[in-house]
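REQUEST FORM: STRUCTURE PREDICTION
Request ID: SP-0412
Submitted by: Lab K.M.
Chain count: 1
Length (residues): 451
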Amino acid sequence: MNKIEKEKMQRVIEQMKEDNIKFIRLQFVDINGSVKNIVIPFKESDMEDLFVEGMLFDGSSIEGFVGINESDLVLKPDINTYSRLSWRPEESAVCRFICDVWTPEHEPFVGDPRSVLKKSLAKLAKKGLQYNIGPEPEFFIVDIDEEGYPLPYDEAGYFDVEPLDKGPDFRRELTLNLEELDFEVEASHHEVAPGQNEIAFKFKEALKTADAVITFKQAIKAIVDNMATFDQMDYRVTFMPKPFFGVNGSGMHCHQSVFKGDKNLFSDPNSENGLSKDAIYFMGGLLAHAPAITAITNPIVNSYKRLVPGYEAPVYRAYGLKNRSALIRVPAARGKATRIEYRAPDPACNPYLAFAVMLEAGVDGIVNKIDPGDPTEINIYQLSEEEREAMGIKVLPSSLWEAYHALEEDPLILNALGSHVSEKFLELKYKEWDEYRVQVFGYEQKKYLDI
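STATUS: Completed
RESULT:
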């Protein structure tokens, strides 16, 4: 540890003492993006060893990691991710560090999703470039009925206010807690579907943003659970993409741009639409690799209940200026705020893997000058199949089965994930699809019982 690193470590330790920290959560995610952690007591004398050597743990029980015969892995805290958990009581304050997973041989573990993203970003950084991304994870607040089924917390719609919208207290409390976690909250509001909400936060460099998405989901679940306990109600938050039939599902639209220093490479004030060639080609790469990307950005069976026409979810592989019926939308902002919005992802995805594959696809578009064609400015939902075919507009996979087969056939996206992650991910998806396809649901029983 060099002098600068030691000074940073000492500043963090002093902050931990000032925050009255009693316990430390060493946090990471599995291949699905589920948060895992181990909790240790705060002892100042142990901190340098923790930051330098990390902490050994058994990786064989973590989804997508290693077998029992090679179980030892190491958690190495990223000192830049220190945060006191605002929803924990001050008298026994808890902080967390997001960790990278390493091998005992002091090498990044190839199955660590965070390392997958860091690898893609490092390649970009060698060219002096930075990938910025701003996600919009939507979520439902639900109540649980006596039989254990979820119900929307309210019957409000888009931008509604009280008394229809019953979420202002939740969103206010969530916003205050998120700001204590260093989020720059830009807006919060009720979304289109009953019980559906959104809290938008400012974009940052992709690794910080992926960390933020994980923290966001964890914090919101914990805070709402605490509020529900206080109110003696069974409220909870779900990031399930489509919890209810017949209404909009939850997406995680991702606004993306690439910068060189303080210059936005997607901006060209001299072009007709204000977009640079790099922006156009980046979209071309995303559209070309979209079927395989969908396996990562929409990773569960339920994801494809959202990706259907008619509920503002994108299913058509096209881009448009302001057009929300296309997979990629270009918001009106220009100059440094120029960005593209990839609209397919949902909040069930692992953000580290999702950001990595979108970046690799976009860069492939720039390198190989993949032309996405002209923008589509009409409502694609209203086109017939023949009209879409005539315009060359293809569709995204309509099931997890289609998506993972598309992933199998896309070497660029497989390479972005690495052989370990891609193999483990596909194994999990084969199993998930097999479990799903043999189930018998209430819909089938009602429809076919008298056949």
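NOTES: The first strand starts at residue 21 and ends at 29.
Reviewed by: T.R.
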